[in-house]
Amino acid sequence: MRSTRHSPPRNPSVRIIPVLGLLAALLLAIGGPLAPRATAAADPTARAVRIMPLGDSITGSPGCWRAVLWNRLQSSGYTDIDFVGTLGPQGCGQPHDGDNEGHGGELVTNVADQNLLPGRLAATLPDIVVMHFGTNDVWSAIAPDRILAAYSKLVEQMRASNPDMKILVAQLIPMNPGSCTACAQRVVDLNARIPDWARTTSTDRSPVTVVDQWTGFSTATDTYDGVHPNASGDDKIAARWYPALTALLDTGTPGDPGDPDDPGDPGDPGGGQPSCSASFRAPSVWQGGYQGEVTVTNTSTSPVSGWTVTVAPADGARLTQIWGGTLTTTTDGTAAVTNEAWNGTLAPGASATFGFIASAPATAGAPSATVTCTAHTASS
Fold first, then answer.
1. Secondary structure of residue 29 in the 3-state scheme
2. Is 70 exceeded by the pLDDT of residue 30?
3. Is the dihedral of CA 216, 50, 106, 90 positive or negative?
4. Domains in the chain and their CATH numbers?
5. What residues does 212 pair with on adjacent strands?
6. Which residues contact 179 (CB under 8 A, 6 or more apart)?
7. How far is CA 160 from CA 131, 200, 204, 279, in A?
8. What single DSSP character describes residue 42?
9. What are phi and psi of 155, to 5 degrees?
C-alpha cells in the first residue's frame, strides 16, 4: 500500500486534501491494479485527502460506482483518502466510504441559483470534487449555456472554499429515457461544449479536468432505465474516474508547493516534462482470449502531443487486433501501441483510450498485463 504526499495545512481554516478489497474478479472487471504499490512511511502530520462526489441520482441514489471506485483505490494502495458529503451511504452491497453529495432529482442550475453548494462545502471541506452533474437539467430542456454558467458558479464557490481545489468534471453518460426522445441529442450537445468551458475555467492552482464518461457507455447495456447505471455502468464510470483521480493523488495533495528549486516537480504549475500513465482493464473475457482496454492519461502540467504504451500481457497472451492505436509486436509478445493522429494530443489531465483483442492459452489465468506509457512532444 502507498500513501499520497501531504504538507501540513498552512492555515487551519483552509483544508487542503484531494479524492476494501474486492474479489480479484471484480477488480479485473474494472481494470484492477496490475501490481501493489510500494508502502510509504506514514506521515503522522498528514490527514486523508477529502474527495467529494458531486451530482444527482447518478452519483447518489445509490451511485454504486462510488463503491466500485473506492474499493479499487483502496486495493491499489490509495488508502489515505476520505470520500465526503452531507449524504451517507445508500447500500451497494459492498463496504465503502459512502459519504457523497449526490442529491436525487437535483438540477445543477438550481444548486447554483439557490446557492446550495457553499454550505455543503463548509460542512465537508473537500479538496477534490468529482462532478457528474446536469442530467436533470438536460431532461428539463435547459440550454447548455445555462448549465455551463451554473458549472462556472459552482467552481467559483469551490475555489472560495479552497483556493487549491482540484475539480474533475464529467462529460455526462448517455441518456435515452422513453419519456424524453430529445434527451439523447441534448446530452451530446452539452458534452461537446464542456472541454472548451473547462479550458477557459481551469487555472494552474485549481485545474479543471474533463473526464469522458460518454464514450463507450451504452444506455441499452449499461443502464436499467435508459438513464441510471446498472452494475456494468457502475464499473465503466468508476474505470473512467480512476486514472484522472489517481493522477491528482500521484502528483501530491492540493496545495503541496513541491520543491521550488526543481522545475521538474509535476506538482509545480507549468513545470515538468510531459508524462503519461496507462491503466489496463479487461471488460470481456472468453475461453482462449479477452478484450482489453488501456486508458492513457496526461499526468503532467504540459501538453502531450503523442504517446506510446508498452503492453506486456501475462500468461503467454498476445495482442491480435487493435483499435485506437498502431500496433508493433515483439517476438516475446510485448506490444508497443502508438497513438493515432486523432487521439495523440492530450491536455494536462486529459485521457484517451485504445482497445485490443488478445488470444490466450487455455491454461492462462485471469487477464492481466503490465502497461507503461511514454509521452512525446512535438519534437520527439
1. helix
2. no
3. positive
4. 24-250 (3.40.50.1110), 276-376 (2.60.40.290)
5. 171
6. none
7. 17, 18, 16, 34
8. P
9. -65, -40
